[in-house]
Structures are given as C-alpha cells and as structure tokens.
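WARN no homologs supplied; continuing
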Amino acid sequence: MRISRPVFTGFTAAAFVLASAAVPKTAAAQPTIDALSGRYIALLLRSSPELVPLSGIEGARQSALPPIAPETLNAVAAEEDRLWQDLKGLDEAKLDDAGRASYALMADGLEAARGLRVCNQPLWSISHMTGWQVTLSRLAQAQATGTPDAREDAIRRWEGLPAYADQDIANLREGLKQGYAVPRSVVTRVVGQLDRLLALPAEQSPFYAPARADGDAAFKARFRPIVAEGVHGALKRYRDFLAEEYLPKAREGIALSELPNGGACYQALLRASTTLDRTPAEVMAVGEAAVAQNVKDIIAIGGKRFGTSDLAATLAAVKDAPDNHFATADELVDFSKRSLARTTKLSAAAFQQLPKQPAAIEVLPATEAGSGVPAHYLPEPDPSKPGRYMLPLDHWKTETKGGAEVTVVHETIPGHHLQIAMTQELAAKVPLLRIALTGAYVEGWARYSERLAEELGVYETPYAGITRRAWMARGMVVDPGIHMFGWSREKAMAYLVESGRFDEAAAADMLDRIAVIPGQLTSYDSGGLEIAALRAESESSLGKCFDLRAFHQQVLSGGALPLKALRGRIEAWQMAARKACTK
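OK structure emitted
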C-alpha cells in the first residue's frame, strides 16, 4: 500500500493518444496547458504542502502547514473552480502528448476534488492513517534545513502547529454538532499514537527532526522550545480533547453511510479512488466475480498440493505450515530483504529497463508501531537515495513467508518502487507527474505486479500463489459492503479472516483502515484488473507481435494516469504496433 492523498482521477480515453502514434505537435496551445499545469501544481503544493518534499520541485518554500480553516479551504475551492473552467476552455485535440497527459491529470484531479466537497472531510479528520499526528510528523522529518532561509521556514512552519491543532479541534467540534463522528475504535488508536509521541523527550520527537538534521547550534537552541513547548503542548491538547471530549461522542459503527450525505460521499470517494464511474453495487459485483475465480484457482492448487478441494482446508494448510512462519521479527526483516534482492534480479526479464534509483526496506518507526499502520512505500525524489518500503512488525508472529514476499513485490519491484521511480524520471516532460500519483493506477500496478512476479518465478515459497489469490479483489467487496450495504463489523471481520490473510487482530486493523479511508481499498483491484485486461486484449489483438516488455513500457512510460487515459494510451499503442508488425 502507498499511503497518499487521492487527488488524481478520471479522463476521456479517446482524448489521449500515444506519442508513437505520430500525433503532430501544436505549439500554439502548449503554453496555455503549461500555464494551467503550473497553476495547478501551485494549488496542490499550497493545499497539500506535504507534497513539496516528496515532489522534488525546487524553489517551493516549506514554511506552511495544510490549510484547514474554513476561509482558506473556500479559497482553495474557488481556485479549483477557476482552473476547471479554464481547463474546459482548451481544445484537447490541439495538445501534444505531454500536454494531453497534463490535461488528463488535471481534469481528473479537479473533478475528484470538486466531487469530494460533499464529504466535508475536515469535520471528521481523526485518523490513525492520515491524521495530522502522522502526516505532519513525517513532514517534519522531510523538512529541508541547512540554509538560513530553510531554517526560518522550519521555524515559521512549526511555530504554527499550536494554532493548527486548535483549528482542527474547532473543526471537529463543529463536525459533532452537524452529526459527523469518527468510530470509537479509530479515536482510541489515535490517542495511543499521541501518547507514544508525548512520551518522547523533545530531542527524540520526529518533530525535532529539522534540528537534528542541521548542524547550526543557534538554530537548535531556537527550535527545541518550539517542539518541547509548542508542538508537545498542541499534541497534549489534541490528545486530551480526543480522550475526554470526543471519545464519549464517537460512534460504534464504521460505515460512512451513518454520516450526513454518506451515500453521496462514498460515491465521490469511489470515483476519486478508482478513476472510474462505477456505482458501489457495480464495484462490488466486479469484486465478487474476481473473488469467485480466485477461489476456483485456490481450490485447484490446493487439490494438487494438499489433496483437498475445500477452500478453508487449503488456507488452513497454508497458514499452519511450519515452514511458512518466522521464528523472530528479525527473521521477517532479513527474509524481506532477501526477497527484494531476488525480485530485483528476476523482474529484469519483463522490462526494457529497471529504475536507476535503489529500493530499501526499513522497519516502521516506534511512534507508529502498534497503531494499525500497514506496510507502505515512501517515495524519494532524490534519485541518489532509495525509495523506502516501511515494514511493520506488529504481527510478525502470524505473518507468513508467502504473504511477506507478496508484500515485498507489491511495495518494491516490480510494484510501487519500480513504477514510481520510473514516473519520477518522466517528470521533466510532465511536471504534474511529480505529484500526480493516481491511486487506481499506482495500487493497480502493484496488484498486477503480484501476478507478474508469480509468472517470473520470483516467489520462493509454494504458498505465495495461494496467499495472493486469497485476498485479491476482496477489498472491492468488503469496502462497499461495510460503507453502503449494511455489513456489520462481525460479518466484515469474518470475510477478512476467511481469506486466510488475516487473524482477528490484523482484520481489526484492516476494518479501521477501511473506516477512515473509505473507497481506497477498491482502487487496488480496480486498477489491477484493468491492467490485466489491457494485457489480455493486447495479446489477443497483436498475437505473435505482442511483446511483454514493450507492453510494460507503454503502461509505465506515460506515468500514473487515470485508468481511462491508460486505456486510451494502450489502445493507441496496439494500433501502432499492429501497423509496424505487418509492414
């Protein structure tokens, strides 16, 4: 999983044409699309300043915190509307390949952002996954330092945290008045995160990272009280507010449908997450069909390996296999690092190139451990530094080797790291690609990579093939099941545990993740199934002319596009490849 703000989604497929299809360039329209792209990037960096260090865009100041006051959010919405109108005034047919990619990303992101206003998310922002106690502590660790301007930016930003926390508390109080309440289980997780942060001395806090990274003694002396008094004071106020005032009013349920406009909000979140115009029922139906096929495949594999045609017996045999478990947490870490080396070596056969940037595995920091934060990938804009797969050890005793190596593939190579690192290499032509990481494409590629790795012989254990199928597409069922179709927590937990991927503790973590990021879990297989379908269609269309390495290059070389734009790109490539093959 890559934890990120879902901002880029949707597009008209016919509008995107592959560069190799020999579309003539028209320079006249290009300055306009470039100007709009520049305005959009500025807006995104303003509304999500955590994107600045991730993007690698030079010159952007790092002195602000995300806007959460109603008046600033209204100003952001007004600029989104202006950009939307200006973008719709362009003639897409007059844009070159890079311009059409920028158009696709902007059109999709703006449509999603405008649709999500119905959710009023600032009024129920408490989250152990994306709450400010997590995202801003990471932002502090990514804060630029080392120059007088950078130091002043850091001081200005983190001096503002107390006011930021107070505004968030005011938003949450207003939310309670309007009927918005976060699940009790989530609030409890966040209080635990805050307790762990507050237990740290100022010098060990992640918020002190700017001073730790800077050798200037005067800066350290100025920054320490900002953390020890201002930041820790804000964390304490927020913690006490949640524990004493909010928790008694938190709700027991986890369905989004329990909130005002919950149904419309979930539809908007599905659209933002999947980049497709599917209803919750349609998403669920696609997921159920894929799960049914996966069950058939598992039963077939189980019959050969374990001599049983029963799904539960097959999954139990996988779970109970002594050689499928770890003796220590360190063994899980070492196994994952060996899996990274193996998948890096074997994946090369399926690609025209692998990214120059290395990938690394790090253990999730102690301040986030035990709170349900899952494995995730953190991009690194500096190509000389590795992108990082953050490995949690909360459930190492029940983690399986088959599950661990599937996750390594998903998060590193050929999954997130390969795709995101290659996208960053393309950003010179389409600057939006530095921050336009469409969830359905990014997670879809990682899910597709799990299947590809099996084809390439990456998995060492005989269990990974069953494990990856057991969970695949279930997110498309359980997520809308919870939020729109009345699934109880008990029914959802049973569905998760049935997959063999989760024990009850891990399933509880997943349920609270679904509660605070509705719709996001559907993006994985919405994208993965679409990429697999595009490959199958390409193989059928091109026959003996199909080249897997060329197909992957086309999927990756356009960057993280909305799924409709990706389909248009691959269909154009098919046409060009057929012509080239028949000459």
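The chain has two domains: 13-261, 272-529.
OK
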